[in-house]
Amino acid sequence: MKKRQKEWLLNILGIFIVFVFLFPFFWMIVTSFKTQSEIFQIPPTFLPVDWQFESYQEIMQNNIVQNFFNSLLISSLTTLVVLLLSVPSAYGLARFSIRGKELFILLFLVTQMLPATVILTPLFILFNQMGILNSYAGPILACATLGIPFSVLILRTFFLGIPRELEDAAKIDGCNPLSAFVRIVMPLAMPSIIVCGAVSFFFTWGDLIFSITFNRSQELWPLTAGIYNAIGQYGIEWNSLMAFATISALPVLIIFILLQKRLVKGLASGAVK
After folding, report:
1. CATH code: domain of residue 209
2. 156 located within any domain
3. What is the reported pTM?
4. What angle is formed at CA 71 by the lines to CA 139 and CA 119, rounded to 5 degrees?
5. pLDDT mean over 116-129
């Protein structure tokens, strides 16, 4: 009986925690369908009395399709750059004896402690000299500078847990070091690679400061920067703002649902390693 009561208490606690975390998302969606007067109504309504869709129609006229495409392009290319550079770097730090390897790892840890505002000015000066301001390259490279150290630290830990004997056996069967890495190591590390890719994608999708700093043209702004269009001349239009936020969050939610099993597997295996 005590065990069953404990299970019931844990289930109730779990449901309560899920409700606490999901309620803001529910309130955001509900608010997007309310009128301005109903939003500030006291007591508040949990469901709209008069469902309205004008807020979604308005933001569709504010270049949201272009903003969505910009977010998708910048996030996808950033994730690609992060994985292409971090996977071989993490493998090299895990497998080979490199002079100053501990210093490299320490520098990667230090970069995780720096806020984005610290590197903003140096990157702006550098990108200005390179002539890549007002282009997609600026936000992509800026987000990659923060995503690569994180991915290297995560993947290195996983590569250290993969036995060297597997690669030695592959070399005996005729594989060279590169083919052994591609055919043996990468499939084993795929859960952690997916986790690093998803984290990089989510981070870049929610980026605001890099996009509005390196791109002055609103045609290059992602969804997070284009949300300013929901702020009207006479104040914030909360229903339009929540509609914009709902559309911005849906792709991330869909990706998380599709990759849920792989993400959990990657996080769990990384923790065990």
Report:
1. 1.10.3720.10
2. yes
3. 0.80
4. 20
5. 86
